[in-house]
Amino acid sequence: MRAAALEALLAEKGLVSPEFIDSIVAAYVNDIGPMNGAKVVARAWVDREYRQRLLADGTAAIAELGFGGPEGEHMVVVENTPEVHNVVVCTLCSCYPWPVLGLPPNWYKSPPYRARMVREPRNVLAEIGLDLPESVRIQVWDSSAEIRYLVLPERPRGTDGMSQEELAALVTRDAMIGVARP
Amino acid sequence: MRGVDGVHDLGGMEDFGPVVVEPAEPVFHARWEGRVFGIGAILTVQGLASTNTVRHAIERMDPSHYLGSPYFEHWLTAFATLLVERGVLTREQLEARAKGPFALSRSSRAPRWSADEPAGPRFAVGDRVRVADEHRRGHTRCPRYVRGKQGVIDRCDGAFALPDADVHGEDAPLEPTYSVRFDAAELWGRGAEPGAAVSVGLWQSYLAPA
Known about the structure:
By secondary structure, chain A is α/β, with parallel strands linked by helices. Chain A is built from eleven helices and four strands. Chain A is globular, with a radius of gyration of 18 Å. Chain B contains seven helices and five strands. The mean pLDDT of chain B is 93.
């Protein structure tokens, strides 16, 4: 009711057009989502030089695949290894790399995730379903300034013969936030 | 007196309970959420809202409203607040059209910001720094849980407008930003998870050599 009231008042003043809102909603529902980030990850898994470019300049390497825009202007890609697991949070609001992951899920924006991920990441990950071995060090990234993060997961074993498209289908949103493994 | 550290500044707070994951979650849970998101995109293009002013307007919400409302209601409240503060709409118009109360954020109580002269980068990767232990009124992107803590610069990022000055001042200087890595033990003491680290994006003004 209140959203409709605001939209109606702004439309009467000529400040917003309902059709333009429709197009923005459609873009984020249909075109801008984790399938984009999955293409980036799959390419990095099969193309060693692309992976190096991605880790050196995330924004430019992601733009090579055609992805960019609001909340993706300054991208840093952090790579999981057998020793280090990366996970992303925004404790102050809900900063998130829209062009590669779309809009964030509710749990990412929720007070429990934002409060607890910086303080007890291993517990939170285990609760969500990711039990990491004790030997893996956890690196949390709080995106409080202008950088937006994408986690580059480790390529799963047993995927040697897979095509880039098959690999992209294995890459989940949660793996690119760092709360799951593909 | 209302605290200077807003309810939005959640890092490290206790007793929020489990993280609840919704399987196969839709991008928007109801039509109004998408409408609010679209309105935000348009207001940003028109210069009636910006990342920093929207964040600050959300941070000025009543704390119980903030914690008790869904995410896109934060945006809705912030847009309505900014439009009323800028004289584009009135609260009466909003409430008449909504046929009921329309909660807005509180007025800002922050003083005007007088910016320092722009400075070049003071730190390099590997430098030890300490975060200023300041609790100013108004908008900042320096989370409470790192204030006064020591860390190490792990990445130098670009120069960006200092959010504190962007919201509360005339001109926001472009200032170098850094990723600063804190050992969990520095942040949380003996209760910290062994070996964990948290890297936080911080503007140069928030930092001093350690």
